[in-house]
């Protein structure tokens, strides 16, 4: 626990430190992401990792993958995520939309542990934007 009482550091399995803090109205100082923000960001990172790996294996000329997330949470405790929308912005050269869609579907349905776990409480939807370079 931090000096102000709502800042925390976690040492994760890979040995890295992650800082978290609460909102000022909850006693935090707004110096780091909230724990639930990190949970959502982790899901975005997990699925982006899958999509990039799948597209590379499919010999797509992928140069970048960004996942923009928006979510709603339950109004009462526990304030779980109830809906999550993921916008995949995939950058590359001559990318095949069908292959990108298949990569996103495979991540969502089979590989991404984080989104599969979150799907137990949240309706997860996605859209895809391809940026040609």
UniProtKB/TrEMBL annotation:
It holds the Pfam family OsmC. InterPro entries: KH_dom-like_a/b, OsmC/Ohr_fam, OsmC/Ohrsf. SUPFAM superfamilies: OsmC-like. This is Putative redox protein. It comes from Polynucleobacter kasalickyi. The lineage of its organism: Bacteria, Pseudomonadati, Pseudomonadota, Betaproteobacteria, Burkholderiales.
